[in-house]
Design brief:
single chain; 49% strand; globular; 131 residues; 3-stranded antiparallel sheet
Length: 131
């Protein structure tokens, strides 16, 4: 399996209050590059929205069908739309419910929105490019 890691983020940040189940940290940057949908080029988010959940921005996750996803966590992804129901089963982040997130322009599956009072996006790194 090939792992793609996006290296355009700077490390320095501050901690946000979050639910007891997850530790969430937001990283601040001065030069925020846009993250685009690889399929159509639509702006999805930017590197200033990068966060760490459970002490890491990147996570390797496997769904019940044994499909492995490399995801990065983001506070906001305004270029995404959510589809389908909000589900608690098979969550990768304890206490969080998830909903599928797609590109609001082309409909490409880009990841998931996780909610538990707080919310964040887990976006599939191989489906994004930076500007």
């Amino acid at each position: 399996m090939t792992t793609l890691v996006l290296h355009f983020f700077e490390k320095s940040g501050w901690e946000l209050e979050g639910p007891a189940e997850a530790t969430v940290k937001k990283t601040q940057t001065t030069n925020e590059k846009s993250l685009l949908c690889r399929a159509c080029g639509h702006i999805i988010s930017n590197e200033g929205e990068r966060i760490a959940v459970n002490d890491s921005h990147f996570h390797t996750c496997m769904n019940p069908s044994d499909i492995v996803f490399e995801i990065g966590c983001f506070r906001r992804a305004p270029g995404c739309s959510q589809v389908g129901p909000t589900v608690a089963e098979h969550t990768w982040f304890t206490g969080y419910r998830w909903q599928i997130a797609v590109c609001s322009s082309c409909g490409e599956h880009l990841g998931w929105l996780f909610r538990d009072g707080d919310e964040f996006y887990g976006l599939i790194t191989t489906r994004l490019i930076n500007s």
